[in-house]
Amino acid sequence: MALVINTNMASLNAQRILGSTSAEQGTAMERLTSGLRINRAADDAAGLAVVTGMTTQIRGTDMAIRNANDGISIAQTIDGSSEEIVDILQRVRELGIQSLNDTYSDVNREQMDLEVQQLKLEMDRIAVTTKFNGRPIMADELGIGLQVGWETTGNDRIVVNTKDMSTAELSNFSAYLLAPPAADLLVGESFIVDVGATLLGAAENITVGPATEDLTPQQVHEQLAALINDNANLKEAGVTAEYNPVDGTIMLVSTITDLVAADYAAGAATDLGIGVVTQDYDISVNSINILTQEDATRAINTVDRALEIVNEYRAEVGALQNRLEYTVSNLSNINENMNAARSRVLDADFAKESANLARTQVLQQAGMSMLGQANQQSQSVLSLLQ
Q1: Nearest to 178 by CA among 237, 247, 94, 120
Q2: Is pLDDT above 60 for 259?
Q3: How far is 53 from 115, CA to CA, in rounded Å?
Q4: SS3 string of 67-110?
Q5: Phi, psi of 187 (to 5 degrees)
Q6: Nearest residue to 90 (alpha-carbon basis) of 293, 307, 253
Q7: What DSSP element (H or E) covers 160?
Q8: Closest Cα partner for 260 from 165, 194, 344, 307?
Q9: Using CA atoms, how far apart are residues 74 and 80, in angstroms rounded to an integer?
Q10: 122-140, pLDDT tens digit by residue?
């Protein structure tokens, strides 16, 4: 090998290796300082793309967990106010039972009814003032959508359905009051009743009789109510008949859709023969009073239907709350696992990086020493010139 001065190959080689060692040392120090294995795209381009997608999912699930917890809070708010409404309805029913007792006068019933009317006002106040973040949740039929996923598909949303709990809407079934039949139509005759044509699309004929003995109007209506309630087609259509022994009337109720008074009255005029539809009867909680025994009976029946509605809705809200709790649990599980997966790709291994730092520090010291010796190597040429 030629002995030269202008080009010191040993020094150049030492500089190149020392530069590489310094770069590795800088990378190790950067990772130990930031705690991240990937600090720029050049560190791991593919890994950075994976980490970005994982971060999107993690931050999305963080917010989805908050959204689902908001839904749980809505359900809890609805259930708490619904419980108060149930207590009010139970008290109204108690007063109705009290009003049915013959030991009380009309004046006494008026005094009882004062409390009933105040309780109705309180129900309406609760319905209007129960809000979540300013939105009424018991005064309207709403569908409150909860974003419980990090994407935008239908599976990432859960809807909380609210219900109008005001007295005007609660238990507001469609009902028609049938008057007692005329007594002179009852002797040894068979009567055909045209019920439910509007709901069923065709008349549902129910025969009362033939009577083998004279029946009172109340007895005929009692028999008719029983036959209506035993009819499978009407039962499927949600039509029921409630017989009131106090005044001998039948309350015809639809729990699914409105009966049309005009259509039913037309059928009654031609086929019924034992009474007519006298009115489209309002059986909402807003209409009840206990001023008479007849009013108290209707009030009790209306409250019973209202309690069924509230209890069914509370069951729906409770089931939704349980679902949302599972949703939160699942999102938390996903979030935890995604954080762990991102950590494996993104985070620096301190044991490995500290070892690399120690190694590069030793190599740097050795490289500096070798570079010094390489630079001194050219001095040996001077001995040839002496």
Answers
A1: 247
A2: no
A3: 62
A4: HHHHHHHHHHHHHHHHHHHHHHHHHHHHHHHHHCCCCCCHHHHH
A5: -80, 110
A6: 307
A7: strand 157-161
A8: 194
A9: 10
A10: 999 999 999 999 999 999 8
